[in-house]
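User: Structure please.
Assistant: Input sequence and predicted structure:
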Amino acid sequence: MQNQNDPAAATNIRPRSWSARALGVAVPSFFGLAVAVGFYACDSATGPDSVNATLAAKGQDIFRNATFGDETFWTDTLRMNEVIASAVDPKTALSVGLKVDLDALPPAVRQGISDGSISLTDPATTVALLKLNAVVGVKGTVTSVNGKDQLTRVGITCALCHSTVNNSFAPGIGSRVDGWPNHDLNPGAIIALSPELTPAQKAVYNSWGPGKYDARYDFDGKNNPQVIPPAYGLLGLHSITYTGDGNEIAYWNRYVAVTQMHGHGSFADSRDTPPVNVSNPPDSVSSLLPALQEYQLSLAAPAPPPGSFDAAAAARGKIVFEGAGNCSSCHSGSLLSDGNVRLHAASEVVSEPEPGNGPSLASRSATKEYRTSPLHGVWQHAPYFHNGIAATLADVVDLYDTRKQLGLTVQQKADLVAYLKSL
């Protein structure tokens, strides 16, 4: 029977083993879903030009709170509830990039954190925060056993990788900012805490570092993590992920929900190398995708902070962008991306070859090509390119100037950076 989830009409779906032996687990870019994604959503392949506010409001709750039933993996397989309850105090959680939602904390808890009467070095405090639904992207079920709160179930949501906080209370504690990639998050280090992993598996996950995640590792066994991308400013973009694998966000949302978060549902794409065929019934994913997509569409790219760029230099930089820099040959249109028109061979992009002779991301994807990333809000989400090889926008410009042999002057490069900061 043909699987309608497979753009290439893959057949003969076989249930995948959900034991700990494969564990190329992906914690959602998000995630977002995420992890290596750009977001576009709606029912039409041509894309929407507006957002349904009512549907988006439902999607916000899904984005922040839906686990798609992935507790069966994070609890029953990886035993992360045991790890958290015994060894992950708030200080440790914050050190690996987990965030605390200030708006979920009662005044007494805020005061206790401020005056030190609530310990940030006690795992029981982490359990209490989970009971309050205050840990961004992590959902815990806390029950009282003999008068003591115990974390019995734990799962993850899209927000884990694709939300952060504004640090208004303390570093890592503040109001949620959905759509911003959590580049403090160290998904590999979190996964490596599981007692069900072998030392070799833990070594791979610990090698990823903050802000990176490999959403292909569990299928091809190759280790080359990518930067968690933003999930904002993508209304109308029909090309999903760094490699343009799908033409609507439902494609990648389903991929991550099922194959990375390990929620309950199915995903198949015979274009992938190797072909992906995963079935984990019952389906807890499909009915949530429309609203989730609509919320992701509603996330606008953030405007640059006041005073963060020189307006006169930016105006000159726009001329360089459209002229000597040749940037607009790919970063075109209102989204500053030609992703709706074409993809690019690996030989065309400046982000390859991969650092350390790692495996090409394009070669591991469904399209075997790259999508031009949109640029609005680019000031916010360093490091740049799918592999993070440019730490700053100045590094981005230098890389293009060198590899494309543009011959830009020092002044032109500085002006171009100012323009990028203005987007």
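The chain has two domains: 53-297, 311-422.
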